[in-house]
Amino acid sequence: MRRAVQAGKVVGTRSPGQPSAAFEQARAREALEREVQRLSARVDELEHERQQLENITAMAAHELLEPLVMTEAYATMVSERAGYGLDLNSRHELDAIIRVSGRVRWLVEALLADARASGRPLELEQVDLSEVIDDRVGVLASEIADRSARLHVDPMPVVRGDRALLSSVFGNLLSNALKYGPRSGGDIWVTAARSGTDWTFAVESLGPAIPEESRDRIFDVWERGSVERRTRGSGLGLTIVRQIVERHGGTVGVTSPRESINRFFFTLPA
Description:
By secondary structure, this protein is an alpha+beta fold.
């Protein structure tokens, strides 16, 4: 047993061949560095695999979309030309082809939107959200007119973000408000409020209140409530909203401040 002596005092003992504390620390540090390097390499591998999967999803969706569009278009054309010349069973079968083709097309388009929302790099610029909302209202003009909906839009700020993706956020939220709102004469409010370093945006509308226990799950992939199952849609719209907002450094949520009113909100850095 060796004794370390300093200024005439014994400060420690160490058996011959026993590693010093400094040696043990250095060895532990080296092991930790190797583990960090291994985990970092694995993260890079997983990111590469994720990008490959997103690319495959986008390519597959593109390949599927064209025949689906053609099938739906030709079936609609036959239905319009043949009219009541077809027997009842044939008309029902043709309607089923149109309906199923449309349903699958919506799913494929949603997958494409999801791949764009989570995959491509953000193209950041100063975005006037008033212009973005005006554009989306124009796209939804026929649905707004069909439901005699009334839109109330606050003055909107200019934020730094990806114009196309932020347009998709407002488009999905407005479309949801129309889809699940009153069949005629409903009001939709689009609001903006600044708090500190963040803007909070909200789309509020009449509709079946979302139960509190479902408010987190509603943004999950394919999550659709009992009311939604009776309504046309892919079940990906709110998932895409969350992905885009989180990529911009914000958060999303939903509340029901009053019975039969839903308020979908999200934040963005000011």
